[in-house]
Amino acid sequence: MMDGAHTQSGCRDAPLLKERGQREVFCGLTAIVWLHRKMQDAFFLVVGSRTCAHLLQSAAGVMIFAEPRFGTAILEETDLAGMADAQVELDREVEKLLSRRSDIRRLFLVGSCPSEVIKLDLAKAAERLSAKYNPHVNVVNFSGSGIETTFTEGEDACLAALVPELPETQDRQLIVAGALPDVVQDQMLGLLDDMGIGPVTVLPTMRADDPAAVGPNTVFALNQPFLNETHAALIRRGARHIAAPFPFGEEGTTAWLRAIANEFGVDQDTFDRVTAAPRDRARRAVAQAGATLHDKSVFLFPDSQLEIPLARFLTRECGMTATEIGQPYVHRDIVGPDMALIGDGPVFSEGQDVDKQLERARDARADLTVCGLGLANPLEAEGLTTKWAIELVFTPIHFYEQAGDLAGLFARPLRRRDLLKVDAP
């Protein structure tokens, strides 16, 4: 891998097969499952239906006697029919919640499909409630609706809603946007600190009063490729994006760190000293876990918006061949550096027409098909080997120490297939 490899052209300007048909995705409320674990004094109040509540309860696996940092204000038939003032009812529910949970410092009013269908103005509600409960509680609104989004956009909408709330600063600093498991975030911050890069702010912050600001001397890096609106919001505040491949695998992590190191003037000797040992561990771990993947083909349905960076990892570091790389939205300023590293050959598709894409997947009959839960079992029944895309969001896969685990996630279905294969009599 060359440190400057992300300046190559590769497939950066490859044409996109744009599809605008039936889609098969989770809704953005799913992001609350990992966000509520990162923000220790926040509460996510979904304004939605019982279906929304059941989704969160089942996805998070929260027991009935637990005290999670999310809940659902149920829209009843009277609300949906306009027979009750939903704003008055919402105020009452928020008052009950805050009187019972004095630890809440940041309250998110999360829109859903039902609240958006009845045009419930949660932005105005957030302004009204924030004025009432400040300075102890800041109330923020974002949409987790699944009408026009994919599930990872819930995090994007949440972080984008936080950016306008950040105070102005003239200080030179780095913001890293995107929620990571604590152990992975600590690894990332340790690498940056060892190179002398700082101060570093991670969005989302763990607590509402953790220092975070933005301004014209702020540069930012994304560690998740689905943060399109967060990217735009930070640029509107005057920050500048450090474009780089995403930190999946040894190559992606090194390129991501190298781009930041160049921005902060880190010399090559320092960079090599900090990264040499973890790079070596990552290479060896990927080689061992990814041996099963070498010379195999992969077809990626659009689902998590991780598809293009993951395809770069699978083709460059694991020796796979990508047949089609589908992604719900392709923001070339964000995923362009990863596209530049992918060799010619695969079809890049944006959006989805699920029936047409299913036909292409059946024709390709790739060794591994990465798709959503709703497609996996039917495709397995047709003899295709599948990988659940959602598992890639809930599993630690970023940076050096997780590189082998990432390769293993893709290798596992192929090994399972080989173990279950029975020779015909």
Shape call:
globular
Radius of gyration: 22 Å
The main β sheet shows up as: 6 strands, parallel
Helical content class:
40-55%
Assign the CATH superfamily of the largest domain: Nitrogenase molybdenum iron protein domain
CATH topology of the largest domain: Rossmann fold
How many domains? The number is: 3
Determine the number of helices (DSSP H or I, runs of at least 4 residues).
Answer: 17
Write down how many β-strands occur, each being a DSSP E stretch of 2 or more residues. Answer: 14
Mean of pLDDT:
90
CATH class of the largest domain: Alpha Beta
Distance between the termini: 46 Å
Q: Name the CATH architecture of the largest domain.
A: 3-Layer(aba) Sandwich
Give the class from helix and strand content and strand pairing.
Answer: alpha/beta
- Give the percentage of residues in beta strands: 15-25%
**If strands are numbered along the chain, what order do they take across the biggest sheet?**
1-12-11-10-13-14
Task: Please tell me about this protein's structure.
With 425 residues, the protein is of the alpha/beta class. It folds into 3 domains: 7-23 and 277-420, 3-Layer(aba) Sandwich (Rossmann fold); 28-149, Rossmann fold; 173-275, Rossmann fold (3-Layer(aba) Sandwich). It is 43% helix and 16% strand. The protein has a 6-stranded parallel beta sheet, sandwiched between helices. A 4-stranded parallel beta sheet has the order 3-2-4-5, with helices on both faces. The longest helix has 22 residues, at 268-289. The N and C termini lie far apart (46 Å).
